[in-house]
Amino acid sequence: MSAEMMLTFYRRLYPFKSIFQWLNHSPTPDSFFVRREIAFNLPGDVIIRYNSFNDHDEFKRQTCKLNPTRFEIGPVYTARPRDRKTARPGTFNPTHRELVFDIDMTDYDPIRTCCSDADICKRCWAFIAAAVRVLDTGLREQFGYVHLLWVYSGRRGIHLWISDKEAMGLTDDQRKAIVGWLTVVPKDESKRLNVRAFGSRALPASLQAALDHLAVVFTDLILEDQDCFGSTDGYEALLKLIPDARVAEALREHWASSSSSSETKWKDFKTQIKTYPKGSTARAILTEAMEDIILQYTYPRLDENVSKKRNHLLKAPFCVHPKTGRVCVPVDPEKIEEFDPEKVPTVSQLLGELDSGGDGDEHHSDWERTSLKPYVDMLDRHNAAIMGEVRNEKREAGDLSW
Amino acid sequence: MFKIEARDDPKSQVQLHELEYPHRLNFYDKPPLYDVSIEEFETSALDRLRILAEIESSRVRNRSWEETKKVTGDQCDKYLQLKSTLAVGVDRDAQRRKDHLGHFVLRLAFCRSEELRRRFVQAEMTLFKVRYETDASTEREAFLRSRDFNWVAVEQAEKEKYREQLISYQSKGDTPFENDKYYKVRWTRVPDLVDKRKVFLHGGWAYVPSRDQSSIVYDEFQARLEKAMIITSRYMPRLDEDMRIGGILDNLSQGFLAGVSGEWSASPADMNGDAIKAEMVDELANKHFPMCMRNSHQKLRMDHRLNHFGRLQYGLFLKVLGVSVEESIVFWRKSFDRINDDTFNKMYKYNIRHSYGLEGKRANYPAKNCQQILTSGGDPGCPYRHFSPENLQSALLSTYAPLGLTSNDLPELMKTVKDGHYHVACTRVFEITHGSSGVKKGEGVGGGESVTHPNQYAKRSMDLQKEAEEKVAQMMITS
């Protein structure tokens, strides 16, 4: 990405106004925007923190002036971040911030078989898709949030920004709690899940709901597509999670003698479970283990540190990923399975579309003439919902005061 | 049984209403709006601080909840009794007033920085939890009824609707679902339950079973206190002008650094008669002195001199330990063996007599406590704070290896030191080096107390030895 390309991108394509509305929750500049930290990343790992702006024009002017490789969004503070040095010591603190989540493919490296490290293909995107389904449903149903914006991170992951009023105001402790609620897979891959209430056979309701969806994903993704238990290493990892020594040993012997697909192996496991009579404890334990394994292989893996603190910076939507050149576009969770990271527009592609698009004059919203349009429209619809709610609240509050 | 009788007794009912503070538990919503003497102001806070400091060190030492509860309960009995509403023969209102006042004074002392606020809130939370758990259930319920916690009782129909989901969060041994009551609150009010996935969540509402009701109460207590502390901190600049109070508050806010020590000034030798002779100090130092005093002693032996603060600190320590003024003069005279009598009498004798209250303003100076030593600036200071980590490690080993400290103990000690809990490290060393006298981890210098004063350390160490000797003597007699 050359500096000129980035500059043209900021001048003609980046939807500053939409981003402003999204951060601000209303059409006229409010504290959510003017007290918001924007951090610019310049070439050579330079980061300029604590920028803040009065409106979207100033935001755009400064961005074009600095021409960063990307920029990040921080919290809303008690005062304008750029005036922070004039605040009394100890009084400059973060107050609000979207609740954010980051899912990164690297956390799936121990189980995915198709790619590794920074690579991502349509096949491993299925892990992300499964995670998005579970989180999106869970956060809406369990926590009651409605303003969820999913954004492709430009390479191998996805971000979630939640702008509900309650979510904006969460303290660090509360953010930590929600992360705890959503953390299922243990850090140490060889450890078994520990999610059930003490002495209880049933999964907690939130996980039972996720399991119903993930069981299907497990068959398609883990057994068929990724064939996670095909290799010796793969099935040994599985055997470690089986809490019954007799069953594990029988399976190991069977699988060592002849190679078979993951699907067959999973069936073998089920057959082994059935050697115990219905209603027996051994069978119940193995059935539980089966559920746990499905969760372990498919449940969302979060980058916890991003979510836990209000003042964590996160890359803004519509920035360009410096390595891939792809734009971090919003993603519709309803169509997450169809999303193909390789079809996301790149800067050079968009600039090409501009050049071939006719008169060559510069307009503020040149993105309308490119394939960026549907994504900006998606953000605008999201903004309309947030602003509509804020407007209603203000009107109700106004009614009371009359 | 006692409770039932008491409730039926009309007299106690009447009394209940007459109390100025009807509940033992207090959310401290209202500040004390009455006149207090400066002395009351200070003692109520100091006594409370002793308890909070012990809670803080319990946390640092990773005491289990049961242990913390026990230690805190013991401290409360000593310094801040708070009896049940049904207690007879005690002035419950007076106890509760002291509790109330002490809390608010400490708010003033601890609102100054974010760090102090956090630690204060944490300690107060623990104290509240201990009291909540030890409160009689009828009184606790009365307290819960006395204020609005803004929870919604879940109706039977709704409970049935989510039957399966609610049951899935139940552990073995919980109240059977049919008999359990549920309360609805926003999930943000019970983050601890959400973190551990212990409640059913739906649409942002947490369905809290009655067994976890305390979580709501605790969270409410914490949230209110945090908010109040920030508001208090904004008013502080105006209050600092009051000269009488400023000094007291400064002093109090140091309390978390080293706990609150008792006053060590009276000479215990007067009471038990076995006065300490100058020539005994060498042996005592090796066996019983805390690191700081051993350090002074070694320095004195090596250099044959000690700087002014060193002499003051060590001299007062010896005085309180039970060295008489005559013996003290002998001790120092022998230690400074490179100067002649004349110089000694001119330069040092007066100071020694002065510290015993025999010259000048004739005050009975107390020995320096840990807090004073920790904040003294370092020469001689507290080894745990003022030595470099490398020096401290080798000093610990060379000093205490003969008493049972091994290099395996160092990582734990160094971590405590690194986190700034110097007196906890010192306490741990005491436990390690007195393991042979039967001191276990967590016992501290008796009853779980931490070291807050060098004399407390030495006294306890000597007492332990005496106990052991007496036991041996006893056995000799009986056998």
Automatic annotation (TrEMBL), chain A:
InterPro entries recorded: DNA_primase_S, DNA_primase_ssu_euk/arc
Entry keyword annotation includes Nucleotidyltransferase: yes
E.C. number: 2.7.7.-
Gene3D superfamilies, alphabetized: DNA primase, PRIM domain
A Pfam family hit: DNA_primase_S
Superkingdom, taxonomy of origin: Eukaryota
CC terms in the record's Gene Ontology section: alpha DNA polymerase:primase complex
Enzymatic class: transferase
Biological process, per Gene Ontology: DNA replication, synthesis of primer
Keyword match Transferase: yes
UniProt GO MF annotations: DNA-directed RNA polymerase activity; metal ion binding
Keyword annotations: DNA replication, DNA-directed RNA polymerase, Metal-binding, Nucleotidyltransferase, Primosome, Transcription, Transferase, Zinc
Coiled-coil boundaries: none
Family designation: Belongs to the eukaryotic-type primase small subunit family.
The protein's name: DNA primase
Species per Swiss-Prot/TrEMBL record: Roridomyces roridus
Lineage: Eukaryota, Fungi, Dikarya, Basidiomycota, Agaricomycotina
Automatic annotation (TrEMBL), chain B:
Keyword tags: 4Fe-4S, DNA replication, DNA-binding, Iron, Iron-sulfur, Metal-binding, Primosome
Pfam families: DNA_primase_lrg, DNA_primase_lrg_N
One Gene Ontology term, aspect cellular component: alpha DNA polymerase:primase complex
Cofactor(s) listed: [4Fe-4S] cluster
Cofactor binding notes: Binds 1 [4Fe-4S] cluster.
Sites where the protein binds [4Fe-4S] cluster: 292, 370, 382, 426
Keyword Iron-sulfur: yes
GO MF entries: 4 iron, 4 sulfur cluster binding; DNA binding; metal ion binding
Protein origin, superkingdom: Eukaryota
Swiss-Prot/TrEMBL GO biological process terms: DNA replication initiation; DNA replication, synthesis of primer
UniProt domain DNA primase large subunit C-terminal: residue ranges: 282-457
Role played: DNA primase is the polymerase that synthesizes small RNA primers for the Okazaki fragments made during discontinuous DNA replication.
Family: Belongs to the eukaryotic-type primase large subunit family.
Name the UniProt record assigns to this protein: DNA primase large subunit
Species: Roridomyces roridus
